[in-house]
Amino acid sequence: MSNVTDIILTCDSPLEDGGDDALEAAFERITEWLRASGSAPLEEVGQYAGGNATFWSWVWVGAVNNLDWEAFIAAVKASPWPDPESVQLLLKSEAAQHFRLIKLDLDPLTPDA
Hints:
By secondary structure, this protein is α+β, with helices and mostly antiparallel strands. It has one domain: Alpha-Beta Plaits (2-Layer Sandwich), CATH 3.30.70. It is built from two helices and five strands, in the order E-H-E-E-H-E-E. The longest helix is centred in the first third of the chain and has 18 residues. The radius of gyration is 14 Å and the shape is globular.
């Protein structure tokens, strides 16, 4: 039996030169962790935002079976984010009604029952 976790990972787009490269390197660490745990990588969806202006944030989404929340949060925290204060991780177990917000500077949260 699987337990699906919905994942939303967001952060600001770096303004300094080379910031996007640093951000992509940080995200690649997350991708490697997901693949090593047998999951597919998250997809970047910020490029599909509506409106009539440029969307200035990065947004990755995905759904993962049997995600080890604590290990995943640790992997996100361990990634070399250029601006870790801007990173937000939202996790929602299939049994939960709402996402849980995890900021990198806070202790990990456990899933809702």
